[in-house]
Design goal:
The protein is α+β, with helices and mostly antiparallel strands and about 60 residues long. It has one helix and three strands; from the N terminus they run βββα. The chain is flat.
Length: about 60
């Protein structure tokens, strides 16, 4: 059984963070602020959508 042992390494890097208002304000697509992370070459790295888990769960239930 594997035991968590903490962080093996960490470093500070520079990225571009964009903040966008998303959603149409309905229960199915609520308004929220979504953060996206990009490198300096314009490549998309990651997204933080606070409703992602809720929307994914509702989509699966339909």
């Amino acid at each position: 059984m594997a035991r968590p042992r903490g962080t093996d390494s960490a470093k500070v890097i520079q990225v571009i963070v964009t903040k966008s208002l998303c959603g149409d304000g309905t229960n199915e697509d609520p308004c929220r602020t979504v953060l996206q992370y990009w490198d300096f070459e314009g490549n998309f790295l990651a997204e933080n959508d606070p409703c992602e888990d809720i929307l994914r769960r509702e989509w699966r239930e339909k």
